[in-house]
Amino acid sequence: MTGARPVWTAADVPDQQGRTVVITGANSGLGFETARVFAERGATVVLACRSLERAADAEARIKAAAPDARLAVQELDLASLASVHRAADDLRASHPRIDLLINNAGGLRLRHEVTEDGFELTLATNHLGPFALTGLLLDRLLATPGSRIVTVSSIGHRHGRINFADLHGRRRYLAPAAYFQAKLANLMFTYELQRRLQTTAADTIALAAHPGNASTEFGRDLPSPARFLMSQRLSPLNSWLVQPPQMGALGTLRAATDPKAEGGAYYGPPGLTQFTGHPERVESTARSHDTGVQRRLWQESQRLTGVVYPG
What we know:
Layout: E1 20-24, H1 29-40, E2 44-49, H2 52-65, E3 70-75, H3 81-94, E4 100-103, H4 121-142, E5 148-152, H5 175-199, E6 205-209, H6 224-229, H7 245-248, H8 250-257, E7 266-268, E8 280-281, H9 291-305
Helix pairs in contact: 3-4, 4-5, 4-9, 5-9
């Protein structure tokens, strides 16, 4: 159609030869699709996953499609600070250069669960673990020209609030509220991190992305009606509501590779609902831009994880 705005696809990802990309939760869904594209474009891709067995399976599937792919597997459980520290030590020893850190892994727990560190599990997996990992790898990123940190949030952040009075849901736990809080935290982390990077004139930038509604294993713990609605088995009847993981990963890929992307940008399906579609730069809620809450969350995240960022 004449005058139609071109859409951004995986074909727009430039050559990635010589770059090292660390992707959390890369064994399935959005993380797998992101890893696959980077591997096909020539990057060295580290699949940082909780299950080494599932990571090895993902590695084999990528290799089957791209025999020359350069892949590595790293055990990482974001719900364990000990595991985060071990993974960071391993990554620092194995990869003197890190061009991209993609904080993709996430999850939603229907029941209140507490990690070995005393954190609510949804908050630990989605925010505190990635916060700690990023801080522990930051010097590697800062030393790499043009490096980026991309954190995957969600349209669910629109319903989120940071409940400092009960951050870990000990008094009252509602699974959706815990998830929305964590995804709001992802954006607040990105914006505060970008502000700090900009203040120090760092070449590294921080960005965020969202997948819209993507059909992945994320929904495996949801009630059966929600799982049914989020399944591609209904396609094309639900094509307005849910899209395949290959499409959902495009927001992350654009944030990570678009030469025109700026620090603090947020990419994902556009429109009123932002459920589906090719990624564009989109806006998050006014609440996500509250600098006072961002700073308070940053300080609390440092206190809880013990990972203190420089500056």
